[in-house]
Design brief:
Length: 161
Amino acid sequence: MAGPADRPEVTLGPLYRADASRCAELERILFPGDDPWSAQAFRDEVAIGHPYLAARVGPELVGYAGLAFVAGPPRAEAEVHTIGVDPVWQGNGIGRRLHNALLAVADEVYATVFLEVRTDNEPAQALYASTGFTVVGLRRRYYRPSGADAYTMRRDPVPAS
């Protein structure tokens, strides 16, 4: 497997049902103390048609992100369901690129966007704050089984550019 020192091109595109096993593998690595998503959960989200994206280096999936619309226009709302990047590839801007791509989808319909983030995940909080999210609530013991708390964050609608 190539590593980030090699600096190959990372491409973003759709996440496919065939990617579900790799996503579940990364979930187990990234979220070991909580309830990682199963391959079936990823297949279900893609089958429903929610905007889910993949970051790839060649054929290798190195990151994923997903968004769901929970209300349509004129007052569209979306939720960031998940963002994950293979630890080998973290720190290379892949998470930011995936996050920004999800926001671009939400901006196409002028949607308010919500997400939950662990209260101890300061790098993710900083990323979200840098794109206009603010903390609007606290969910105690949100993550299971760890019992970690989560902030609910919100980003007001932004016109598509």
